[in-house]
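Encode chain A's predicted structure.
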Amino acid sequence: MSTTGTKSGAIGLVLARPPRLLGTEPFFMEFIAGIEQHLADWDLSLLLHVVSTQDAELAAYRRWAEHGLVEAAVVVNRLVHDERPAVLAAAGLPALLVGEPAPGFPAVRTDNTGPIGEAVGELRQLGHRRIARITGPGALLHTTERSAAFVAACEKAGATARLVEGDYSEEAGAKLTTRLLTGGEPPTAIIYDNDVMALAGLAAARELGIDVPGELSVVAWDDSTLCRLASPALTAMSVDVHQFGVLVAESVLELLDGGPVTERWSPIAHYVPRASTGPVPAPRA
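Encoded structure for chain A:
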């Protein structure tokens, strides 16, 4: 790949999320490391900008395009109603989408259906029939795709599905887990959309005197050191996040070269069983 035509030597990435979550959620740090490692081989750097709102994200793209601050942008966390492709096109800023593609933009895609089916299937093999999922924000496209796949997988497997929306935070994980476990017909297994909420849910179950995995099985989406060090260690949907970042960087380099961008898919998440999942508890006498 040749970078002869570049000016700023930077690729832009805007994260529209509360900064406090970045300090506790390992996913994006590993993802960014993978991008930066590969870009460094071509003397390119990653410009990371953290904002709190989507309006601020859109303003950043317009500013970057106007002042030539980046050569291209990497767009993550695709939304159900996503204004960003149109804004990027109007600004003339090349971009790579991470998630579902949009007309005129290359993308690194992710399978959000198969892994959910695998997780539900593993829990059903353990005998679980009441399975809940604590999701990320409903405005995110991958949240809606996973939720639809979760409901379909539960229906196919003869399990009852329950969905509650969280925001990836520790607070949401604890509060929503408590709500699920203290209501009528509590689930015997919960799948969380990130490791932070899963760890908070584990603590909430412990405070309620509910044994994991004796009475409740817990599964985290996105494996991490936190999952492996938890007590009990958390079963997780594990994906090579660093390699995900490398694949994104490879696509960005092709984009800058001006030729066709190879269609790539992120590494597939796989179920890694650990001590937080077990057979469904026997009915109480």
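The radius of gyration is 20 Å.
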